[in-house]
Amino acid sequence: MFKTILFPIDMSPETHHVATLAAQLIKLHQGRLMLLSVVESSDSEPAKDHGRQSSPEAVARLLSQAKEMFAAQGVAVETLEREGHPAFVICDVADEMNADLIVMGCRGIGLIDDSPVESVTNRVINLSPCPVLVVP
User: Fold this and answer.
1) Which structural domains are found in the chain, ordered by start?
2) What are phi and psi for residue 121, nearest 5 degrees?
3) Which of 24, 49, 81, 92 would suit a FRET pair with 39, their CA atoms being 20 to 30 Å apart?
4) SS (H, E, C) 121-132
5) CA torsion, points 95, 100, 105, 111, in degrees to nearest 10?
6) What residues form DSSP beta bridges with 38?
7) 81 burial type by CB count under 10 A (0-12 exposed, 13-18 middle, 19+ buried)
8) Contacts of residue 113, Cβ cutoff 8 Å, sequence gap at least 6
9) CA atoms within 13 A on the CB side of 88
10) Contact 5, 31 (CB under 8 A)
């Protein structure tokens, strides 16, 4: 059912929790897992947490560590690094690779109307060309 799963990762602690689910899904469906990490453009909205990724070096390290973590679980992954606004890049990549599913975490902010800044997760939900599984 889910032959191609896109898993956008960042430096937030929630990413590790979601990685476990992504690994289980890919094993269950015997598909392709693509890890995506986005170097945020300098004109992105200011991040209020440690999930912001402003350097290509930090993103490369993150992808390398994630690839090793999945390999230890017996899951082969492909990695991709892009630059731009995370939500738009995630949706563009999902479209380019014909993803069947995007699996991503949510830090619990931005999914309600009271938030002054729309979350990346909410934007992806609204713009995605495929289903989005949000893991709280």
Assistant:
1) 4-135 (3.40.50.620)
2) -60, -45
3) 24
4) HHHHHHHCCCCE
5) 70
6) 82
7) middle
8) none
9) 7
10) yes
Structure tokens at 21: 């689910």
pTM of the model: 0.85
**How sure is the predictor about 110, in pLDDT bands with cuts at 50, 70 and 90?**
very low
Cα–Cα distances in Å, from 81 out to 28, 56, 86, 90? Answer: 26, 8, 11, 11
Q: How far apart are the first and last CA of the chain?
A: 23
Could you write out the three-class secondary structure of 23-50? HHHHHHHCCEEEEEEEEECCCCCCCCCC
- Separation CA 35–CA 32 (nearest Å): 10
pLDDT digits (tens, 9 = 90+) for 17-74: 899 999 999 999 999 999 999 998 766 554 444 445 678 898 999 999 999 999 999 9
Q: Would you state the structure tokens that stand for residue 92, as one six-digit string?
A: 């563009």
Candidates 40, 133, 32, 134; CA nearest to 83 is 40
Q: Do 26 and 107 touch, CB atoms closer than 8 A?
A: no
